[in-house]
Structures are given as structure tokens and as C-alpha cells.
Amino acid sequence: MKFFEKVRLFSEGFKKGWNENVATKTDTNIVDNDSNQTQDNELKDMFTPLANKLSENEKVIVDELNSVQGNPVDIGGYFLVDEEKTSNAMRPSKTFNKILEELI
Predict the structure, then answer these.
(1) Helix/strand/coil percentages in the chain, nearest 5
(2) What is the helix (H) or strand (E) element at residue 16, kind and residue range?
(3) 22, 74, 81, 104: which sits with the fewest CB atoms below 10 Å from its CB?
(4) Cα(46)–Cα(58) distance, rounded to whole angstroms?
(5) Is 24 exposed, middle or buried, given 0-12, 13-18 or 19+ CB atoms closer than 10 A?
(6) So what's the pLDDT on residue 12?
């Protein structure tokens, strides 16, 4: 199974788990639940480290995201934005970005 197919399947499982957990409010740690799935060990091996790192860094990531809320951002224009400035504005958590880069 190709990498992006695995990511798609993980994403579908995440959405399903999110909808079920939000509806019942029984568990909010969805990433951890999906990393504990037993149907595809290769997928599990790929996402367990991600789930662990996200859990370990949750407070830092949330603090980084909250720290930029409500502040104006220069993205270099209105219609023709600067790609680098826009990317930086849309990805404000250095911790989260680093964790995602390690996945790829």
C-alpha cells in the first residue's frame, strides 16, 4: 500500500473517530486511538510515533497556536500574497510543523 493511500485511510479513520467521539463525548484522544488500531500494523507503526509526539507536545502546540490569535498578519498583499509570508502565517506552531515534517 502506498504512503498516501495509508494517509488517506488514517484520515478517514480519524474523521470517523472524531465524529463518534464528539457525538458521545467519551474520548477526546482520537489520534492515540487511531494509532492503537490493529487492522494494519504498518499503518500503526507509521502513526504511533506521531500520536506520541503530539500527545507529549500538546500544551506547547496549543500555546503556540493561541499566541497568534487576534493579531494582524502581513501576508504581502491581498490578491497576490507572498507565498513564504502566507505559509508562515498559516503554520504558526514550530513544534507542530517539526513533528509533521518528521512524518514525511
Answers:
(1) 70, 0, 30
(2) helix 3-24
(3) 104
(4) 19
(5) exposed
(6) 67
- Cell numbers placing 24: 458521545
Please identify which residue in the block is written with the cell numbers 487492522: 39
19-63 pLDDT per residue, tens: 555 444 444 454 555 556 677 788 788 888 888 899 999 999 999
Rounded to two decimals, the pTM is 0.60
Q: How far apart are CA 69 and CA 57, in angstroms?
A: 19
Q: Is the pLDDT of residue 86 over 90?
A: yes
Closest CA to 42 of 6, 5, 15: 6
Pick the closest to residue 53 from 15, 96, 10 (CA basis): 96
Closest by CA position to 32, among listed 12, 47, 11, 45: 47
What cell does 16 get?
470517523
Q: Please check whether residue 65 is in contact with residue 59, taking contact to mean a CB–CB distance below 8 angstroms.
A: no
